[in-house]
Amino acid sequence: MRFIHTADLHIDSPLRGLSRYQGAPLERLRSATRRALERLVELAVEEKVDFVLMAGDLYDRDWQDFHTGLFVNAQLVKLKNAGIQVFIVQGNHDAQSHMTRQIPWPDNVKVFSSRTAETAHLPALGVAIHGHSFPNREVPENLVPGYPPALPGCFNIGLLHTSLTGMDGHDTYAPATLSDLKAKGYDYWALGHVHARQVVCEAPRVVFPGNLQGRHARETGPKGCELVTVEGATLTARFVPLDVVRWHQVEIDMQPVLQLDEVRRTVVQALQSAVADAGEVLHAMRVVLTGQTPLQALEASQPGTLEAAVQAAAQEVSGADVWIEQVKLRLRSPLDRERIGQGAGALGELVRWVDELSSDGPALEQFCREALTEVLGKLPAEVQAALAHDLAEGDIPRLDDEVALLALVKDAEATLLARLNIPEEKSAA
């Protein structure tokens, strides 16, 4: 008996803010969740699996129109034509009460009730699948106690959308402990909701397969499904990558890099290493340049220089399709900050003021709030919208994130010092 366990497909998940990136492969990014589902169906047919388990969040939200549902239906019909059954629980994104549009499911599809836990018994395979869909977007109670007892003589599978006892970066839904799961006596728990793959337990096997397709720069690495084979008492499982866009965060230490001409070699080497053995996918890269380097002064005097250097280096990566989503700079100036801070001039006052902010969290937050209030009102509406999106996505710090705010202030300080380019001997005056 063979089956596929997938979760968190988020079909037609909106990718906001991409249009502001010049040269972004918009169509490939927007169609990525659909193409990943197509690849899942292709795998299921090729591997002749008996059924597919979908552990919640098949959809990202209520359909904008019927095209989303019709696309998914077409894929499910392909599975039907191959004799493959599909078992679905609805999660917080596609909860029963949240979906207003609908079309009839193909008859090879079983969607578990949102009112109570159910069991689907497959006598020919000796399998019992137990599941409970989300009735609403927020399910604060533990659903596991309501799951049916294990069916004797069967391979028992629990299909559940849950945060367990809480996972970083994920809201708490249908919380449950590993002890709760084990107490049911099932052989396999097919979980969903957590977007990073995680094997929680081997006996019984409890798995979050992760989402099928990464959607932004915080969902990095290979994404795919679990391909499970059960032969007698032996279970073997293999993770199969199915993503068509793979997100990376590549941090590059620029401290050894002294000249602009050296950037190309360093960046090409780092990007080439990141895409090694990754297959035919689009590699979406967020590059972070770190370290103390004199190139910080060049960037301060000619903003955009290092981003352009990274973009140029990406064009030289061989054997892979690379798109630079963003270049972030976390560089430090080689100027002697301590000596500058001992000076009596304006630069010395700047350094001492930043040191005061470093030790006073409320003052730091108040300064940033006042500065943002003054600046934001002067920006074009489209820029304000882009900033709001980045804030919602966590790409820019919140005002209560003291560490991130301090990093921004120190980066601004370093830029001022580098632009003024005060020789070290003068900075001690």
Instruction: Give the spatial strand order of the biggest sheet.
Output: 4-3-2-1-11-12
Number of domains: 3
Q: Which stretches are poorly predicted, pLDDT < 50 over at least 5 residues?
A: 422-429
Task: Give Rg in angstroms.
Answer: 26 Å
Elements, N to C (H/E): EHHEHEEEEEHEEEEEEHEHHEHHHHHH
Oligomeric state of the chains present here: single chain
What is the residue-mean pLDDT, rounded to a whole number? Answer: 86
Query: Helicity, in percent?
Result: 25-40%
CATH architecture of the largest domain: 4-Layer Sandwich
Indicate the overall shape. Answer: elongated
How much of the residues is beta strand, in percent?
15-25%
Assign the structural class, choosing from mainly alpha, mainly beta, alpha/beta, alpha+beta, or little secondary structure.
alpha/beta
Q: Termini separation (Å)?
A: 79 Å
What is the CATH T-level topology of the largest domain? Purple Acid Phosphatase, chain A, domain 2
- Biggest sheet features: 6 strands, mixed
CATH domain class of the largest domain? Alpha Beta
Domain Calcineurin-like phosphoesterase: 1-196
Enzyme class: hydrolase
GO molecular function, one term: exonuclease activity
EC number: 3.1.-.-
What would your notes on this structure say?
By secondary structure, the protein is an alpha/beta fold. It has three domains: 2-241, Metallo-dependent phosphatases (Purple Acid Phosphatase, chain A, domain 2, 4-Layer Sandwich), CATH 3.60.21.10; 244-334, no CATH class; 335-429, no CATH class. Helix content is 33%, strand content 23%. It is built from 13 helices and 15 strands. The chain has a six-stranded mixed sheet, with helices on one face. Strands 5-6-7-8-10-9 form a six-stranded mixed sheet, with no helix packed on it. Strand 7 (155-161), helix 4 and strand 8 (188-192) form a beta-alpha-beta unit. Helix 5 crosses helix 7. It is elongated and about 85 Å long. It starts with a strand and ends with a helix. Residues 422-429 have low confidence and may be disordered. Its EC number is 3.1.-.-. This is DNA repair exonuclease. InterPro entries: Calcineurin-like_PHP, DNA_Repair-Maintenance_Comp, Metallo-depent_PP-like, Mre11_N, Pesterase_YhaO. One of its GO terms (molecular function) is exonuclease activity. It holds the Pfam family Metallophos.
